[in-house]
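Job type: complex structure
Entries:
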Amino acid sequence: MNHLVKRRVNYVLSELGQIAFLAKDILLSIFTFKVVWRDLLYQIYSIGVKSQSVVIITGAFTGMVLGAQTYFQFHRLSMDTAVGAVVAVSMFRELGPVLTGLMVAGRVGASMSAEIGTMKVTEQLDALRALGVHPVDYLVVPRMIAMMISMPILVVECVGIGIVTGMFVAVHLLGVSQVWYVNYMLKFTALRDLEMALTKGFVFGVLIVFVACNEGLKSQEGAVGVGRATTEAVVIGSLAILIVNFFLTMVLNIFFPAG
Amino acid sequence: MAQDLPHSMLAVQGLIKQIGDQKILRGIDLSVAAGETLVIIGRSGSGKSVLLKHLIGLMLPTSGQVWIEDQQIVSLTERQLLPIRKTVGMMFQGCALFDAMTVEENVAFPLHEAGERDPEVIRTKVAEALDVVDLTGHEQKLPVNLSGGMKKRVALARVVITRPHCVLYDEPTAGLDPVVSDSINHLIRRLQKRFGVTSIVVTHDMKCAEHVADKVAFIHEGAIYFYGAFADLICSQDPLIQDFIQGRSGDTD
């Protein structure tokens, strides 16, 4: 039992050590990064453009469900017109960033981890190093920058489409007055909500790349190892988003208090 | 051999590598003069590839020293090692071609990373490198569409395009038929003659060793068991060496 605890502690400490070294390498590289526009644009395309359909569908149906559920509850209290405010604030401050983060962690995090993991087990990472190229500079930093650019945009898309579809359901299917819906939505949402969404999106994007690349870079044992790294990238990435979201919410509410 | 150090292209002294309880290298001393071709032979699992990875700093030893052109590399960080590695190319056993890139992009990769942006210069240098390895006309193919021999040639073209002072070959003829193996052997020799590069070849292909070696090191259980000319190796009466040369396992049916 003692031995097991010791092994577990050793494992956790070594994981933390690896993450610290990766963070150091990324920080060292990101400020001296020579932009290769072709590579960066490809990553933005791969991370941002290709995630659009997933994010839009997620945002659309979340907005619709949120609109409907809020209406069903508020209708009993004769507060139908407040649906717009609830949908907009929820989408901006929580659902938009978190759901976009989870979807991107699943789609992009898995792909990043699998790609880097496969490169590791087929000695392509060693080949990079042998050619005098640091894997963090070539593989991690362009993905990190592309994610920092793409993620806030994806969050805005998710939030926007969620608000629009929520309004569609509430106004056109459930009969809420469009004027009051929009009026209350505008009254209770402001720039601070957008700022919160963008900040969360940015942080979640950094987390996703960080976890996925770390899992990919440390993958071992061939195909099994790549599979494990991919699974862990999605699981750890998603959990990290949910956990960090709580602390971010508490801190960001100080800077961007709810109206 | 450590006394040869100042004139060596590459040298190791007292190299020990232990992973867990397993001692893989048990105190290797070796030096390779500039322009020389050293062939490292030994049975599978004897530590040849591990030794090769130590020579370019891809693995860190448990103890011991490694020098590349008089620069001691063991204490250097990964970032300090990067410019030094550009003087030493390595061809991996599995070729390690970047599978998302075409042949042309693979070969041009080191030039891009060195900051070369002129497409005309890149095209000319890639054409030259592919000509050296007899692979002109396959520029647009992806690695997945190449045969084993062609992959080895692309890997070699990627290594030589930046004109390294030394090339490390990890099992260059492994998995190839005898004819393709022979052409790879000729290629290694040709590169050595044409560019004067120092070569270190890890193999257990005796034909390859005979064809390319100036010196041979036979590794057994993580230590150098024999070091000398290929002719001396062949003439050795040591049973372990003879078993290896003749391919005798000692097992019976």
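Summary: The two ends of chain A are 52 Å apart (CA to CA). The first helix of chain A runs from residue 2 to 30.
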